[in-house]
Here is the input.
Amino acid sequence: MSNDPMIHFDRVTKRYPGGFEALTEVSFKLGRGEMAFLTGHSGAGKSTLLKLIMLMERPNKGQIFVGGQNLDRFSRRQIPYFRRHVGVVFQNHQLLFDRTVFDNVALPLEIAGVAPREIGRRVRAALDKVGLLKKEKVFPITLSGGEQQRVGIARAVVNKPPVLLADEPTGNLDPELSEEIMKLFQQFNQVGVTVLIASHDLALISHMRHRVIRLDHGQLQIG
Amino acid sequence: MKDAVQRGAKPSQGNRRSQPAINETPSRQGASAGLEQSSLEAYFSHHRQTAKSSLIRLFSTPLSSLMTWLVIAVALALPMGLLVLLTNVTGLTADLEGSSRISLYMKLDVEDQAAFQLSQEIKKRADVDSVHFINRVEALEEFKSISGWGDVLAYLDNNPLPSVIVVQPDSSVTNAGQMETLAKSLGETPGVESVQVDLQWVKRLNALFEVLGRSTLAIALLLGVAVILIIGNTIRLAIENRRDEILVVKLVGGTDPYVRRPFLYTGFWYGVVGAMLAWLLVNGALWWLSGPVNQMASLYYSRFQLSGLSLEATGLLLVVGAFLGCAGAWMAVKRHLDEIEPR
Here is the structure.
């Protein structure tokens, strides 16, 4: 069981309506507890690959397994329950600006039906991990870019997903902040979370010493 | 650090022990989550919170909310007001039915003396209040004076008119059905040629009310559809305004019912508060009418009073308001919300 990969792409092809082929026959495995970077030029298919794992898109050919489960088998109604096991961090962090940091981070727990008294404890634990415990009552608009991204990360990990995905999480940040954010991902990886980060920041990736999955025009580059 | 992440793993989900994993089938997760007490608690807590926050949201834009509420209130108040007036007037005519009289035309060969005696016997009946006997001579005189055919009658050898017993029913006879029964029973009395009940106009009035009742129902249905459309459109705008939020909620695992809930509650509040305002409008209008109505009633020597919305009618108004609100919201949610999918 533990030899099962956490994420397994088996000859996956994704073609968008209109004929653009974002991914062609992509196959790879990412082990449980592994951390990897997904790189490539813009338009290489990084976002599409992440969207396929999130079930935001469906492949045209091939199969995807996450945690040993074939994603084909998830009906539309089951997708939300699947998504609760996958944390996602976005480049534009997708925070809701009409509610506090606490409420933003609490959202996945409320959705999952966690008891209200339990929510406070877990939200503070997540905010503590990203170093924003003191900012729980403020609104995201008053935070810096790096802080906003850390709120996004807290929200992605608050319900302890076994898989954490990130789409250009450092895209808008300066190198110093970027490294801080990457270290945060590393910390989650160290406690057993499988992490896959799409990024084109090659300088940063090269000194992180993790596996690199490289896409070029929708095809996997070996090496 | 390591502990912190693993300790937090939900104890109820046995699949996550030391290594996080996605093992359970999603359907089972859904089912078991629903059965958990804490989840059930969270479910109701979310309902409560959503109900509250969607109402607060409406009050946070008071002017536009008030306009929508007023439109709904007017649309609900119109048929409700008509219904109340109709109920009032129907109650009024029910009294009139009982005040009608029955005329018994005797056979021509019955002597006035015998007919008078019969009238006295009829008077003893429990369902009869009083009788008025008109003998043949009186009948002829009355006919002459009213019809203007007196000259023609002079050519006739004998009086063609029968004697008449006019019966005033007891006050216990209140509706048309009871009147008919009484008239039929009187008509079977020996010596009576024919019976005439003075009910025609009451029947016509009732038929008119039937038409008005149906019209009110038609208006109510049309305005009900209008309310659904108004609320549907308002909810559609609310969905557009909260598009980002919907996307995020869907991305972090919000189910369709979860995403719909705040909008359904918003529709519910539009309907219920609209119905409350409609109640105020109807009662306000009744209060405004009560002065002239009382004056009119006193001119007719009637103790008639305008009755307001009954408890049942108030309940009906609120239930209808809530239902229309939810229906409108459901329509908008079905059409616009389910289309919003993260891309």
User: Anything to note?
Assistant: Chain B has two domains: 46-95+204-337, 101-198. Chain B has twelve helices and four strands. Residues 275 and 318 of chain B are 5 Å apart (CA to CA).
